[in-house]
Amino acid sequence: MRVEIETEPEFRPGNPETIAEPGLYAINPLGRSFDISPDGQRFLMFKESTASNADDPFAGLTRLIVVQNWFEELKARVPTDN
């Protein structure tokens, strides 16, 4: 969920909005199971595995794809006039 807030002239919360589909999300006992981008516009969350091993929330996961410098690749693939 997210809630927009105003701080001036006084604190006023907005209406809550759903930003993630309902479901079971993994809990990492060693740290966070989510992260937020530096600009606050995106976040990553791990969904709970549907594997039968309930002791391991990452059981059944076979891969994780991480794309670095994707913006540079996008600019190379889709050139602009700028």
Please give a structural write-up.
With 82 residues, this protein is mainly beta. It has one domain. It is 10% helix and 12% strand. The chain has 1 helix and 4 strands. The strands form 2 sheets. It has a two-stranded antiparallel sheet with strand order 1-2. It is flat and about 50 Å long.
Percentage of residues assigned to helices = under 10%
Which structural class is indicated by helix and strand composition?
A: mainly beta
Number of domains: 1
SS field, number of helical segments: 1
User: What is the strand arrangement across the widest sheet?
Assistant: 1-2
**Largest sheet entry:** 2 strands, antiparallel
**Termini separation (Å)?**
37 Å
- Average pLDDT rating: 76
Beta-strand share of residues: 5-15%
Q: How many strand segments?
A: 4
Rg over alpha carbons: 18 Å
Secondary-structure element order, N to C: EEEEH
pLDDT below 50 for ≥5 consecutive residues: which ranges? none
**General form:** flat
Please outline the helices and strands.
Layout: E1 5-6, E2 12-13, E3 34-36, E4 43-45, H1 70-77
Antiparallel strand pairs: 1-2, 3-4
Brief account:
Helix content is 10%, strand content 12%.
